[in-house]
Please model this.
Amino acid sequence: MSNDAHQVSRRAAAYDPIAQAYATENATSLLNEYYNRPAIRQLLGDVAGKRILDAGCGSGPTLVEGGATAVDIDGSRALLDIARDRVGHDTELRVTDLAEPLPFEDATFDDVDCSLALHYLEDWQLPLTEMRRVLKPGGRAIISVEHPFAIWFAAEHEGKETNYFETRERRETDMAGHAADITFWDRSLSTMLQSFLNAGFHIIHVDEPGPAPEAQQQFPDFFQNEDSPDRDDPRFLAFLFVVLQA
Model:
């Protein structure tokens, strides 16, 4: 196996050892269940009758219901096994690394949902170009990524010297309370937006939404903490949501 192939394989399977713990945490967490997923579903809108690619679905595919025909892909077989238990056997699930060409024909999907997956990749050119290729003309890619400002502010708060404008590697050795070896690639907002444009997309919507309404009842300590954002506005800086059109 070449070094490049080894890197792809290692990254794609990085969540396998912690899949169950990660899935359990995400199923009830503020950031995933009450913030990211509701925002993605709202941006997708009415999906009835559409064919949608859930790129990087993890253990919790977004389109469990709603009338869409969903194809769910992820690099972790262990996470997909958990997803299978959740969605049943009618949904197509495939082990697929987003750093490789997608195994689909041109103009196959009405929309692509890529939720919190791109930030594992150093190079966005291939995955974004592939998403555009498999979209029908006028189709959308709904993207969520870790907000570049939140990542940079967190590093500054921890006393780490980082160049905001540089695409830089970040390693996490603890995930969901378990030892892990997860690599993230952080980049500036302008780098992100230019990557979308370079892939041939039109940027039609950018959002920094608030959490689901029930989040404040589920996580009162967070929303009443004096260090949290202004309580008259429940929004907080975590993820960035972008809608692209092919």
User: Anything to note?
Assistant: The CA atoms of residues 13 and 76 lie 5 Å apart. Residues 1-8 have pLDDT under 50 and may be disordered. DSSP finds nine helices and nine strands in the chain.
